[in-house]
Amino acid sequence: MLTALRRIAGMAVTLMVASFIIFAAMYAAPGDPVTFLIGNPENLTPERIAAVRAEYHLDEPVLVQYWLWLTGALGGDLGTSFQYRQPVASIMMSRLPATLFLVAFAGVLFTVIGVGLGVWAAVRRRRATDSAIVGATTLAASFPSFVVGILLVSFFSVQLGWFPVTGAGDGFLDRLYHLTLPAITLSVGALAIVSRVTRQSMVEGFDSEHVEAARSTGMSSGAIVVRHVLRNAWGPIVTMVALVVASMLAGTVVVESVFGISGIGSLLVDAINSHDFAVVQAVLLYMVVAYMVVTTIVDLLLPLLDPRIGTRVKPS
Amino acid sequence: MTRPAHSPRLGILALAAGAALALSACTAGAATDQTSAPDVELPFGPSTPAATGTVDSVTWMLPAEPATFDFDIDSGAAENTVLTNVCERLMQVQPDLTTVPHLAERAEWVDDTHVVFTIRGDATFHDGSPVTAEDVLWSMQRHAAEGADESDEYANVAAIEQTGASEITVTMTQRDAIFIQAMAGNGGIVLNRQVVESLGDAYGGPGTPDACSGPYVLGEWNPGTNLTITKADDYWDASREVLADEIVFRWADQSAVVNALTAGEAGGSYLDSPASALPLLSVDDVTLAQGASTNAWVLLATERGALEDERIRQALSLALDRSGIAKAAFGGLAQPSKTPVGSGAWGYERQGFEAAYDELEGAPASPSEADLEAARALVEEAGAPSDPIVIASDGGSVRNVISNALVAAAENIGLEAEIVTVPSAQYGDFYSDESVRASADLFSDEYYISKNDPVGFYKNGASTATVNFVGFADAEYDALVQQAFAATDDTERAQLAIELQRRWVEGTPWIPVAQSPATVALRADLTGVPSSAAYLYYPWAADLGSAQG
Asked: Is B260 within 8 Å of B61 (Cβ atoms)?
């Protein structure tokens, strides 16, 4: 109970600090939101600039502006977008589903395929299959995701017409169909990491004494892999998968623009370019929260997968 | 409303849109030797060939998601492309960029400072209520209100009054010959007062109905996904043929727009830049067309100092290889320009403007030996500035090409020049922030005006204009601007505009670079829409139909 409270307090402090750093960074970044708020350069008279600054509190010191934002945010109001003139929360809500779906889809893909390849490589360790898997995944990871995306879209969508070119689709199946290529693009780079971690921790397992013992009892090699090797290897794999998912939640920008998806990533880039402070603040905070949530889930999940982790932290 | 069309985007997208283009950008220093880009010629005119039949539903790509449909807050290309089919104005721009009466059946200057709009009696809003003079009055006052996005159109307006059952009289503080034209833009939109007031702050956002009278009705808007407009059931103008039943708008970055068109997933799109058409040239099922717009890439001189002497600016303008820029940055789909505003500004007296343009000197497409000699002589006469001339780029492909070409031009005539890179998020601050302007002598931008009248542009050369940064001052020019604004007679105003144009090119407060025409891409079975910049202010969807006979 106390641990849970401490954890929540820690998260709150992290959020506060992160929100201030983001706010200050936005404030210090080059570019003046007034230029965008007024738009027409022929209207950029000193009087008009001053009036707009006052209207949006841009003439106040950064601490005052932060305080205004913070009091609003604590009351559930994340502010209003300069660009869309809508509450930031509703803009976020319209963009989040596509991005979350995309990341979840990619997560499933790279976990299943990555772990599968890792297990295969570990079983065939130091043989041709092993080298082929390691080599191929490393090669795939060395392509930037926008190159992969452009290649996939031009071949499978434009040339062959198998997949839609843009958009995120409506409804579960349509969305699955629309986001297949984006999810593959996103997961290609992660395959190398996940398969490598799986392979490595399994190879260690194969050499351990209890596996030797199991083998000596005449257990089938399939059962050894599943019950003794893979089971002990889950810890590092799950941790790595979670870290990759967490970083994906913040890194969908490129894939979204290649595939014409209105998600959180493209929203962030647009907002940064138009100095839409409230939106940038909200999107970056969402990324911080997403990271914390994912890592917390892993912390809670690991003791269930591997009881040794739970017992180890208990005071003896 | 006049504004530069800056749309900051991810650098990688230029690469996605056309790798060849990005590569040519890297070698722009050798712009003159650029022969790899083929000389492409697209159909150029006011409209694509007329449609022969109706169509049901067409997917149309926008460069971005619309932000709001309350144009008194803000409007950009995406919002205009949609709402021009839904909302109507007192006047209407035609595909050939002339202006005709629309919701006002007549607009007349009764004396120097009074203009009378006679509102037609048969127009109705989408809720069935008639378009009345009260609605017009209320709408104009809303547009004119302090801080409203279109209020600059009303700068010379002293009073707006209803002076008859169907008559609105606008009193001006001084003659403003382009005011009637401005009423074909967003300042002339007539809104249904009752609808706007009942919606309050929600008006213009997703899920709210429109308050207009046009041939289309704003339908479902799924933020982040799509937006639909459908043919109005009982459009008041029964004689107007409305061909497309429904347009579903979607939006994406230009590379994805190009892919959607190539794959046939989208029926058409007005492209963000002519360069986006390059990858579509080889696609059989897509037809491309271009038309006049007011958009032009220009180099704006700042008050930093090196370009204070107009002879240096003239010399640079003479030596700049505009053809090279048009090829390297736009694959030849933009044209070298002698003027800082595109030919779409010629909304009247077109022949006169054309003839005057042909005679203009001082901004050649490619500098001849004689031009370079003249430029060198000017530099010699003025003396080279002590510090190198600094030109700002943002690292994007177009600005890189222009900056490199300018450096090449300067070096060719014995001037030193260097490039400074400013983040694209900050580039717009050149207009608002003196300290940013202090970092460069020239910055480049794509500038456009919303009224098809050169006078609306050349006022920017007046000594008091906010964007005349270099301090170009010519008392006669200022007087000509005044006269042109007072000249309600088109022929007279055209002559004044031509004289302003001549003086501008001579004084060169901004160096003209290239005209970037409107470019439309259509699936081959569709046709009919304007190919000029009229798509921002004219109900183009009504003309969109099938191409088969």
From this structure: yes
Q: Which residue would you say has higher pLDDT here, A213 or B35?
A: A213
B413-460 per-position pLDDT tens digit: 999 999 999 988 888 889 988 889 999 999 999 999 888 999 999 999
For residues B449 and B297, is the Cβ–Cβ distance under 8 A? no
Percent of chain A with pLDDT over 70: 97
CA angle B93, B94, B97 (to 5 degrees): 75
Q: Label the pairing between strands B268-270 and B55-62.
A: parallel
Tens-digit pLDDT profile for residues B279-301: 999 998 999 999 999 999 999 99
B62 band by pLDDT with thresholds 50, 70 and 90 = very high
Q: How far is CA A87 from the centre of its chain?
A: 24
- β-pairing, B55-62 vs B244-251, is parallel
The C-alpha atoms of residue A153 and residue A150 are separated, in whole angstroms, by 5
CA-based nearest distance A240→chain B, Å: 29
Reduced to 3 states (helix: H, G, I; strand: E, B; else coil), residue A51 is helix
Residue type, B520: V
- Give the gyration radius of chain A's Cα atoms: 24
CB contact under 8 A, A275 and B256: no
- Which residue reads 């569709």 in tokens? B526
How many beta-carbon pairs below 8 A join chains A and B? 153
What three-state secondary structure class fits B269?
strand
Rounded Cα distance between B254 and B488, Å, is: 41
Instruction: Measure Cα distances from A68 to A57, A74, A280, B504 in Å.
Output: 9, 10, 16, 48
Is A85 close to B73, i.e. CB distance below 8 A?
yes
B511 pLDDT tier (thresholds 50, 70, 90): very high
Reference B324, options B427, B378, B403; nearest CA is B403
Phi, psi dihedral angles at B25 (to 5 degrees): -65, -35
Q: Which among B409, B400, B393 has a CA at the least distance from the CA of B508? A: B409
d(C-alpha A109, C-alpha A103), whole Å: 10
A80 touches chain B (CB under 8 A): no
DSSP track, B289-325: EEE--S-EEEEEE-TTSTT-SHHHHHHHHHH--HHHH
User: What distance in Å separates residue A60's CA from the closest CA in chain B?
Assistant: 18
A181 to chain B nearest CA, in Å? 13
* Separation between Cα atoms, residue B463 and residue B460, nearest integer Å: 8
A298, A36 contact by CB (below 8 A): no
How far, CA to CA in Å, does B434 sit from each of A40, B302, B398, B464? 16, 9, 24, 16
* pLDDT on residue B417: 93
Strand, helix or coil for residue B56: strand
**Helix (H, G, I), strand (E, B), or coil: what is residue B523?**
strand
**B195 CB neighbour count, 10 Å cutoff:** 19
The secondary element (H helix, E strand) that includes residue B140 is helix B133-144
The answer to whether the Cβ–Cβ distance between A39 and B250 falls below 8 Å is: no
- Closest-CA residue of chain B to A48: B147
* A82 in contact with B, Cβ within 8 Å: no
Task: Name beta bridge partners: B111.
Answer: B114
What is the average pLDDT value for chain B, to the nearest integer? 89
Element of type H or E holding A144:
none
Whether residue B259 and residue A166 make contact (CB cut-off 8 A), yes or no, is: yes
pLDDT for the residue A311: 55
Tokens of A230: 């893979």
Rounded Cα distance, A262 and B61, in Å = 13
Rounded Cα–Cα distance for residues A157 and A165 (Å): 6
One-letter amino acid at B158 equals A
Please say whether the beta carbons of B149 and B72 come within 8 A.
Answer: yes
Contact B125, B213 (CB under 8 A): yes
Q: Which residues in chain A are closer than 8 Å to B432, comparing Cβ atoms?
A: 32, 34-35, 38, 41, 44, 49
